[in-house]
Amino acid sequence: MSDTPYNAGGASSEDGATTGDLFPPAHVGERLASARVARSLTLNDIASRTRIPMRHLEAMEAGKFETLPGRTYAIGFGKAYARAVELPEEEIAQQIREALGGASHVPTREVTQFDLDEPSKVPSAKLALLAAVTGAVILLAGFGIWRSYLFPAANVEELAQAADAASASDATPPKRKAGGTAPSVPAVDPKAEVVFTATEDNIWIKFYDGEGKQLMQKQMALGEQYTVPAEAVNPQVWTGRPDAFEITVGGRTVAPLGTSEVAVKDVPVTAAALMARPAVPAATASQESRSASTEG
């Protein structure tokens, strides 16, 4: 849109009408344009003062108010423009209402939250970067928790078989060798203290009783210990890292619940159930002996 106002003859007055009203503005848009030029202002000046996008200012000066986002916006923009060029706001607003009165108004587009033609409303680069970093941190934290205990529980069947074997071993007395005595089986104190010690940092684990009541749930730190309450009825465990915990029953190390990063759930952790699991490998047992002798 040119900055030259419509003026086919006569000098312009400050409100945009020509002297003597020989050739008055054809529409309210030309009146706004004439007032702007009379004050030596450009469209950029008006855009800076009113924060109205340039394309809307051009449409207003061309009298195309029906192309603006809506009737309310058209009237509001017109009043802001009138205020910038010192024209009577309500008079301009009324002329815009009359211009829109018989028009079938169809907005050309919806107004979005951020208009790219208005740099002041576009988020800054720092804000966008901060949002991206925050999102990445949340994703990483979520992945860590998911990896810890939402891993597919592939060895549940094996754990069930081990529990069945433990029950069977409790019910069946050990066989005697021909001409010998029965192998010695360490007596299990049903109230022996069961302690879990984290061998890695930030490992999630949950303990609960046979009715599902939670005993403890947290991400244990390296070296942190948890003692299963002696009064808990049929305590069980759920974790995504069974290989990351050392278990002792009455001070004696027993086999871990697993040797890989595969989740286990509903595994009994009573003293009897843990002692019935396969023995600790010889290397581990010898290491315990060396540790005991060193402490002595």
Strand content: 5-15%
Radius of gyration: 41 Å
Q: Helix content range of the residues, please?
A: 25-40%
What are the segments in which pLDDT stays under 50 over at least 5 consecutive residues? 1-22, 104-108, 110-120, 152-156, 282-296
The major β-sheet equals: 4 strands, antiparallel
Mean pLDDT: 76
Order of helices and strands: HHHHHHHEEEEEEEEHH
Number of strands: 8
Distance between the termini: 96 Å
Number of domains: 2
Tally the helices: 9
Widest sheet: strand order?
Answer: 4-1-6-7
* Net shape: rod-shaped
Structural class call reads alpha+beta
Please give the structural blueprint.
Elements: H1 28-38, H2 43-50, H3 54-61, H4 71-84, H5 89-101, H6 125-149, H7 156-171, E1 194-198, E2 203-208, E3 214-220, E4 225-227, E5 236-239, E6 245-249, E7 252-254, E8 264-268, H8 271-275, H9 282-295
What does this structure look like?
The chain is rod-shaped, with a radius of gyration of 41 Å. It has helices at 28-38, 43-50, 54-61, 71-84, 89-101, 125-149, 156-171, 271-275, 282-295; strands spanning 194-198, 203-208, 214-220, 225-227, 236-239, 245-249, 252-254, 264-268. Strand 6 and strand 7 form a beta hairpin. The strands form two sheets. A four-stranded antiparallel beta sheet has the order 4-1-6-7. Helix 4 (71-84) runs antiparallel to helix 5 (89-101). The longest helix is centred in the middle third of the chain and has 25 residues, at 125-149. It contains nine helices and eight strands. Residues 1-22, 104-108, 110-120, 152-156 and 282-296 have low confidence and may be disordered. The protein folds into two domains: 19-110, lambda repressor-like DNA-binding domains (434 Repressor (Amino-terminal Domain), Orthogonal Bundle); 139-167 and 189-281, no CATH class. The protein has 296 residues and is α+β, with helices and mostly antiparallel strands. Residues 1-25 are annotated as: Disordered. The chain crosses the membrane at residues 127-146.
